[in-house]
Amino acid sequence: MIRSADICNHLYRLARERNGENVEIELNGVPVLLLQRHEDADHVLRARSDNYRKNMAWFRQALGASRFSEDGEAWRIRQALTHGYFTRFDREQTCTLARRYATQAVDRLMRDSAGGATALDDGVLRTMTVSVLVENFFGIPYAQTGIDLQRIAELMEYGSAYSFVPSGETGRLYLDGLRHLPALRRRVLEDLRIFRDGSVPAGPMLHDMLVADADPASDVVLEHELLTFFAAGAETSAATAGWALYLLARRPQVQERLRQQAERIASSNEDWGWSELATFDDLADFLSETLRLFPPTPIIARLAIGPDRIGPHDIAADQNVLISFVGIQHDARLRPDPWSLHADGTARKGAATGVNTAFSFGPRICGGKHFALVELMAFLTVFLLHARFELTTQDEPRYHWKAQMLREGGQPVRVIPISRPVDALATRSGSVVA
Ligand code: HEM
C-alpha cells in the first residue's frame, strides 16, 4: 500500500523510469491513470474539462465544501464570489507587505542558523505567507486574528492522509485520525469565528462572503471558504519559498548573480516594489524553475464523468485520473536535461514550464496564481538582499506530501547574514535589518 505521505517519492520515481509516458497504476487497490504528458493533461484540464470533475472527497471531509473542492454550479457561485478579489489586488501593496514579513522571516531564520539549526523552520515561512495573505485581503495583521496556523496545517495533514484511500476503506485504515478529526475541525472553525462576529472589519471580500453565507438559497459557508483560502494560499507559497531557498543554496553561482541584480534594484530605488520587480526577469525565470523542479502541488485528482479516450487508454465513467505535475514538468521530450535548473533564459519558454503548469491550467487554474507570483518575487528579493544560503547536506531530497510537497526533515539550508550599508535595506515600513 502506498502511504499518501509517500506519494511524491513515487511520482519522482515514475517521472524517471517512465519519462514522457502515462502510466496505469493501482493506488491502494484503486486503478488510476496517471498522466505524465502535457498534451493529455491539457485534454483533461482544458479541452474536455466538462467531463472530469474534481476528486477531492478527502479534502472536503477535512476542510468542508469550498471553491476548491466543488464542481458545477456550486463551484461557479463560489468562484464568482472571490475570483475578482484574488486577481485584481494591489500589487504594490502586496510587495510592501511581502517585504515587511520576509524581512522578519529572514531575520528569524538567520538567528535560528546562528543558534545551530541545520534546517529551515517551515513555521517561519508559513507565518510569513499567511501574514501577507490576511493583511492583504482582510486589512488586519494576522497576529491580531488569533488564528492558529498549526491547527490548520494539522487539519490539512488529516485531509492528505485520506487522499488515496479508496472509499469504504477510510475507517479501517485511519481509525485514529477519524477519532481526532471532529474535535480538531471544531477548534479551527471556532478560531475563524472572529471573521463572522464583527471583530474583523468587513472589507469588500469579507462583506460579499458574509452575504453569501447568510443567503438561505446558497450553501456557501464562510468558515469553509476561509479555511481553504488560508490552507491553499499560505501553505503552497511557503513550500515554494522553502524549495527556492534550497535551490539557491544548491546553486551558489546562480544565487550570487541574482543577488547582484537584486542589489542593483534596491539601490536604484530604496522604496522598490512591483514596478521594479516586474522587470526582474532572471528572478522570474528562477522562480519558474523552482516551481517546475519542485511543484508544491505535485499532483491533482480528477474523476471521469462519462466515457472518453486518452491516447490508447479507454476511459470509463468513474475512472480516477491523476495529473502528475512532477511527471509533466520533467518530460525530456519537452526540455533537454529536465532534472537540472535551467538558468539560461529558457525557463519560461515552451510547454510545461513551472509558471505555466504548476498552478494547473484550464477553468480550475489556481485562483491565487498572480498573487503568489508577486509575493514570491518580493520574498526572494528580500532574502537575497539580507542573507546567503548554504546547504547543510548534499543528500538528495526525500519528499513528504501533506497537501503540498515538503522535504522530509525540512530544507537543509543555513542562513548567513550579509553585512552591507544599512540604508539600502530600509523597508517601506521603516524597519531595518542589517
Ligand atoms: C506557489 C503557490 C501556489 C501554487 C503552486 C498553487 C497551486 C494550485 C493548484 C495546482 C490549484 C488547482 C488544483 C486543481 O486543479 O485541482 C490551485 C487552486 C486554487 N488556488 Fe492555488 N496555488 C498557490 C497559491 C495560491 C494562493 C496564494 C491563493 C490565494 C490567494 C490560492 C488560491 C487558490 C484557489 C482559490 C484555488 C481553487 C481554484 C478554483 O478551482 O476555482 N493559491 N492552486
From TrEMBL:
Any Pfam family matching the protein: p450
Record InterPro entries: Cyt_P450, Cyt_P450_E_grp-I, Cyt_P450_sf, Cytochrome_P450_monoxygenase
Top-level lineage group: Bacteria
Family membership noted in the UniProt record: Belongs to the cytochrome P450 family.
Protein name stated in the entry: Cytochrome P450
